[in-house]
């Protein structure tokens, strides 16, 4: 009975520590290459409300669009390619498509068009691709990657016409899409509005929620003890605690609680208050990086806490996780990273994926 509960899928957690001011720190690369993010969570111990500067950064996160039944070939429109795609300004992800069941599409800001499609669609498209890394015994899913900046994709070239024909005539793929852009300029705005005018669409802004937690048991963290050998809890326990905080699970295991026996990991301290702020939507890496930079400035003035946390969750059904690394769902589709920032500009980086993912960079 309940034997499936014992069959937990493999997961991978990569942990590293560095300093933001170190010349070899890769924090900017990790943030910028995680393209499709749907939720950001900030936890700040001994804090009751967002500062005006943090609130300003969060409230200035980029708007995005939900476009209904958008054909994929529209991304190959000559004007759209020139003024939006080739400027590296666009993030596009098919909406409510399951990566392990449906045809899933993404357009990356480096102008890579990713088509994760089933076997029948792949054979009809007539485009070169490769079997998914996460097939079973026989390939049932394929990934087609089209570099829209390649010279062969010049609108006057034969390959461009072949790709356009495949997406427009042989298999007219279409889907609802989430579109986000970062500073595309006047010509980019015009080209995007031209595309939107041909379809049903709605503009959205990220949803912000924040609340203050009172008398919260909180793990004690020390910048030098990433593994949790002495003065800190281990990374898995810390991330589990963050998950409990985000889910509103009590961490004190009181006798009156019949819902949870979870307790905050040791070593721990009791903080009088802690701020938990979340932002959800299609969240661009550029905006997340701006938030990270502002969080680094949080310690410019004396604070009662020695650390704070930033967690970023990727879309479960995105065809990529970091960069162009193929992403699969399996049993969870998790792909996330967490940064713990310390007073002295040291940081911990945790990167987590499920069994259908490459090792994070």
From TrEMBL:
Signal sequence range: none
GO terms assigned for molecular function: ribonuclease MRP activity; ribonuclease P activity
One Pfam family of this chain: Ribonuc_P_40
InterPro entries on file: RNase_P_Rpp40
One GO term of the biological process aspect: tRNA 5'-leader removal
GO annotations of cellular component type: multimeric ribonuclease P complex; ribonuclease MRP complex
Name this polypeptide is given: Ribonuclease P protein subunit p40 isoform X1
Species name: Salvelinus namaycush (Lake trout)
Name of the gene this protein is made from: rpp40
């Amino acid at each position: 009975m309940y034997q499936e509960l014992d069959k937990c899928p493999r997961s991978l957690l990569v942990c590293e520590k560095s300093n933001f001011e170190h010349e070899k720190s890769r924090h900017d690369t990790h943030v910028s290459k995680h393209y499709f993010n749907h939720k950001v969570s900030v936890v700040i111990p001994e804090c009751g409300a967002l500062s005006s500067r943090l609130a300003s950064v969060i409230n200035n996160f980029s708007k995005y669009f939900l476009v209904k039944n958008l054909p994929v070939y529209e991304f190959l429109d000559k004007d759209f390619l020139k003024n939006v795609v080739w400027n590296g300004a666009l993030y596009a992800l098919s909406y409510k498509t399951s990566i392990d069941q449906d045809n899933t599409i993404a357009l990356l800001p480096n102008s890579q068009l990713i088509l994760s499609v089933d076997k029948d669609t792949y054979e009809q498209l007539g485009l070169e691709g490769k079997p998914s890394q996460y097939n079973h015994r026989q390939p049932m899913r394929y990934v087609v990657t089209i570099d829209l900046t390649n010279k062969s994709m010049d609108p006057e070239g034969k390959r461009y016409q072949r790709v356009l024909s495949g997406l427009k005539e042989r298999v007219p793929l279409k889907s609802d899409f989430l579109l986000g852009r970062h500073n595309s300029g006047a010509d980019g705005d015009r080209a995007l509005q031209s595309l939107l005018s041909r379809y049903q669409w709605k503009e959205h802004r990220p949803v912000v929620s924040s609340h203050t937690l009172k008398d919260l048991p909180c793990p004690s963290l020390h910048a030098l003890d990433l593994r949790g050998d002495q003065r800190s809890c281990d990374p898995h326990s810390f991330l589990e605690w963050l998950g409990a905080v985000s889910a509103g699970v009590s961490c004190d295991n009181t006798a009156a609680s019949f819902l949870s026996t979870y307790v905050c990991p040791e070593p721990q301290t009791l903080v009088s208050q802690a701020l938990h702020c979340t932002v959800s939507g299609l969240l661009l890496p550029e905006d997340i990086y701006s938030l990270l930079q502002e969080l680094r400035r949080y310690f410019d003035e004396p604070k009662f806490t020695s650390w704070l946390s930033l967690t970023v969750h990727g879309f479960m059904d995105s065809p990529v996780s970091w960069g162009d690394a193929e992403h699969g769902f399996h049993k969870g589709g998790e792909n996330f990273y967490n940064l713990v920032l310390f007073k002295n500009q040291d940081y911990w980086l945790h990167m987590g994926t499920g069994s259908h993912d490459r090792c994070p960079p």
